[in-house]
Amino acid sequence: MTNHLDSFKSRKKLKVGEKTYVYYSLKDAEENGLEGISSLPFSMKILLENLLRYEDGRTVTKEDIQAIAEWLTSRGKAEREIAFRPARVLMQDFTGVPAVVDLAALRDAMTKLGGDPEKINPLVPVDLVIDHSVIVDEFGSPKALQKNVDLEYSRNGERYNFLRWGQQAFENFRVVPPGTGICHQVNLEYLAQTVWTRKEKVATEKGKTETVEVAYPDTLVGTDSHTTMVNGMAVLGWGVGGIEAEAAMLGQPISMLIPEVIGFKLTGKPREGVTATDVVLTVTQMLRKKGVVGKFVEFYGPGLGSMTLADRATIANMAPEYGATCGFFPVDSETIAFLDTSGRKSERVELVEKYAKAQGMFRSRATPDPVFTDTLELDLSTVQPSIAGPKRPQDRVLLSDAKSGFAGAMETEFKKAADLAARYKVEGKNFDIGHGDVVIAAITSCTNTSNPSVMMAAGLLARNAVEKGLTVKPWVKTSLAPGSQVVAEYLTKSGLQESLDQLGFNLVGFGCTTCIGNSGPLPAEISKAINDNDVVAAAVLSGNRNFEGRVNPDVRANYLASPPLVVAYALAGSLQVDLSKDPIGVDKKGKPVYLKDIWPSSKEVEEFIQKTITKALFKSKYADVFKGDEHWQKIQVEGGKTYKWNMSSTYVQNPPYFEGMEKQPKPVEDIVNARVLGLFLDSITTDHISPAGSIKAASPAGKYLMDRQVAPADFNQYGTRRGNHEIMMRGTFANIRIKNQMIPGVEGGVTKYFPGGEQLPIYDAAMKYKDAGVPLVVFAGKEYGTGSSRDWAAKGTVLLGVRAVIAQSFERIHRSNLVGMGVVPLVFEEGTSWQTLGLKGDETVTIKGLSGDLKPRQKMEAEITFADGSVKKVPLICRIDTLDELEYYKNGGILQYVLRSLAA
C-alpha cells in the first residue's frame, strides 16, 4: 500500500470514457502554491508530476517539489538533487544479460545472508529485447536472414537459455525474443504508451483500503544510451548504465540534479531532397557546439507542425551523440495520430489526449513558448544533404564536401595523403581496391530504420537504380537490418524490397548489427588486401555511432548517412566520388547516371507511405511479440527460484561482487601508494574501456577462451559474453585502438608494470598488482567515458583493482556507474591535467580523506611521488555528487547497498 503526502492538494480524478483514473494535477498544484508552473518546459512538468506522486517526506520532500517551481527563477543553475522514479525499465540483451546475472547473483547472496531470495524481483515493469546478438555473417543472398538467425542461436544458446530462465523466475519481467526488432523501435512502435497506468491500494478517509487506477506520464530508463528515441513520442527517458537500471528495477529512486533545459526552436520545413538524417546530423552538430552534456533539450516552435513522429524519434534517438540527457518532444496531435496508427488501444489513445490536456502537457499552435535555461534555433529550410565522419557523429560534412573532406582526413587523421590515388590488387578477383573505397554499406540501426520516409526513399532509389541498370561495386558488403518486422513488411508490401535485393541489400536480421560492431567479417580476400596494403577503407552506415574501431576492425573511416545515401555510396563504391556532381555509374546505354537522376521525390515517398503503412500492419506484427520463433520455443529451461550455474559455461558465470559480504559494510580505506594503470587522452569512450566487438586470439580474453577449448571461430564477441566476468575483466581497456600514453605510439591494451617497467597486457599487469596488494588508479583527459552506457566499463575497472579514476571531466552515465561499482571519480581543477603535472606513469599516488567524513563533491588532494622521490600535491574534486551516491560508495557499490537494505 502506498503512503502519499499531498502537500499541494493535487490528487484528483479524471473520467475517460467509462473509466475513472486518479492523477496528480499540475493545475491544482499551481493553484495551491506552485506558482507559474504552467510556464515550465514540458519535460520539467513530467519531473514535477513524478515528485508530486511520490512525495513521502523522505525521498521526496515538499522542498524538492518547490524547487521545481523555483526552477523558473534558477533555470536549473541551482544545484539541487531530486529522486526520480521511472515507470519502467527497458533493456537490450548485451546489458540485459549481466543485469539478470546480477539479479541471479543477488538471489544467491540473499540466501547466504539468511534472507528470502524471492525478495529479489523487479519492482517496476522490465522489458528486455534481444536485439544486439545478430551478426552479419551472411549477406547479399535470399538465405542471409535464415543463416544469420541459425548462427545467432548456435552461438548464443547458453545466454538465451539463461534469459528464458529469467523470464520464468522473475515477476514483472518480460523478454522480447530475438528476430523481433531493435529495443528502441519496439519501444516506439509497441511498448511505450505515453501515459502509463497502474493499480494501487490506497487508504480511504474511513481507514479502509481501496484499489484505484492511477494515470501518469510514461517514463523510463534504459540500459542503452539511445533509449532517448522514445522522447519523440513525449515519453521522458534516457540511457543509464546497467548498474543504475538494476537499482531502478529494485525500487531505488534514481538521484539526479534538477537539469537545465535548453529549448531548441524549429521553424520552416526541410527542402526537397533533404532527409530526416540530414536534419539530425545538423541538430547534432549544433548542440555539440552549444555544449549540452547533462542537460535536457526540448524541441519547440512552429517547425514541429510539419514534423512526423518518426522524424522526431530520429532526432531524439541521437541525444547521446549531441551529449544531452534527453531530446524531448511534447504531446500534440501528431503523437495522438501515431499512437492510433501504430495500433495502440483506442481507450489508451483517448486517455493520452485527455490526460495531456488536463495536465497542460498538450502542445498546440496556440501554446505559448515555455521558459528555458537557454535557447537556439534552426530554420529547417536551411538544412543541406550531409554525412558525418570519419570517426565522430558530430563531424558533419556537406555531401558536396564529402570527397574533399575524406582527402583532408587522409592528410590529418590517417597521414596517408601521398597515396590517395593508389589502388591494390585483390587476390583471385578481377578488381582492385583503394583508399576511401566503401567496403561496408549498411542500412542499420534504430535511428533511421524506424523512419518510413528514409526507408521508403532507400527502396525507391534502389528501384530507380535497378531500372537504369546500375549495380553495386563488387567490393561492397551490403546489408539491410531493419529495427522491426513492420519495416520488412512494408518494404515487401510496397514491392521495393525486390529492388533492394537486386542490389544486395537483402534482409540480414532484425537487430542493431553494423551500428554496434556486428558487421561480421569482410570477405577474406578483401580483408587481406586492406591489411597487406594498409588501406584506409570506408564504411557508410545509417547508424548513430561511427567511433574508431567500432564498426569493423578492417575499416578505419566510418560515415553516418541516410539510408538512400547508403545505397548511393554502395553504387558509387568510394568516398572519392563526389555524389553531388560526379556520375554514380553508367546506365544500360553507357550514359552517365547522376544521384539526382535516381533520387525519389518527397511526394512519391509520401504516396508509398500512405499506401502501405496501416494500423493492421502494426497489429499483426505485434500480436504475439513475446512468443518468439520455433528456435526460442524449443529452449529447455533449468533451475527454479535460484539459477543452476554451469561452472563450465563461457557465457554466464556467478560474479564475485558479493564474495565475503557481511550485513554491515566495512569502513572505506584511503588509497595509499597506488600505481598508475593507464594514462589516457581526451574522449576515451566506454568502447575503448570495454569493447563490444571481436575478441582477438592473442588477447587475454582470447587466451582464456582457448584454454577452455573454444576455437577462435566460436569466440563470438565481448558484447555477447557480458555474462562472464572472467572474459569482461580481461577485455577491460583491451580495445585494439586504445592508446595508453605510458607507452607512446603503441595501440591496444598494454601498460608498464612497476617497479621495473616491464610491458604487459593491462589485465596481466593488474593481476600482478592485485597479487602484490597494490591499489591502482587511472588518469585521463576530458569527457572520459563518452559513448554507450556500458556498465562493464565500470565493472571491469573495479575488478582490475582500480580504486580511482582521475580525469579532467567525465561523461554523465560512466561517472555514476563508477560510483555504483565503488570506484571514486575525481576531477582536476580547471587548467590542470596529468600532462601539466608531467606524469609518465611510473609515479605512486596517495589520496586521503576517503575514509573520513566524506561529503558529495568534496575538495580533496592527491599526493604524487615521482620516480626521483620528489612529491607534488594536486587539488582534486571528488565527483561523488549526491548523498545517495555516497551511500552506494560506502557500501562498496549500489548492488551491495540494495542487498543490505532488502536483507535488513
TrEMBL record:
Residues 79-573 form the Aconitase/3-isopropylmalate dehydratase large subunit alpha/beta/alpha domain. Gene3D superfamilies: 6.10.190.10, Aconitase, domain 3, Aconitase, domain 4. It comes from the Bacteria. Pathway: Organic acid metabolism; propanoate degradation; Carbohydrate metabolism; tricarboxylic acid cycle; isocitrate from oxaloacetate: step 2/2. Its cofactor is [4Fe-4S] cluster. One of its GO terms (molecular function) is 2-methylisocitrate dehydratase activity. It catalyses: citrate = D-threo-isocitrate; (2S,3R)-3-hydroxybutane-1,2,3-tricarboxylate = 2-methyl-cis-aconitate + H2O. Residues 703-830 form the Aconitase A/isopropylmalate dehydratase small subunit swivel domain. Signal peptide: none annotated. One of its GO terms (biological process) is tricarboxylic acid cycle. Its EC number is 4.2.1.3. It is an enzyme of class 4 (lyase). Pfam families: Aconitase, Aconitase_C. Catalyzes the isomerization of citrate to isocitrate via cis-aconitate. Involved in the catabolism of short chain fatty acids (SCFA) via the tricarboxylic acid (TCA)(acetyl degradation route) and probably the 2-methylcitrate cycle I (propionate degradation route). Catalyzes the reversible isomerization of citrate to isocitrate via cis-aconitate. Could catalyze the hydration of 2-methyl-cis-aconitate to yield (2R,3S)-2-methylisocitrate. The apo form of AcnA functions as a RNA-binding regulatory protein. Belongs to the aconitase/IPM isomerase family. Monomer. This is Aconitate hydratase. It comes from Alsobacter soli. The lineage of its organism: Bacteria, Pseudomonadati, Pseudomonadota, Alphaproteobacteria, Hyphomicrobiales.
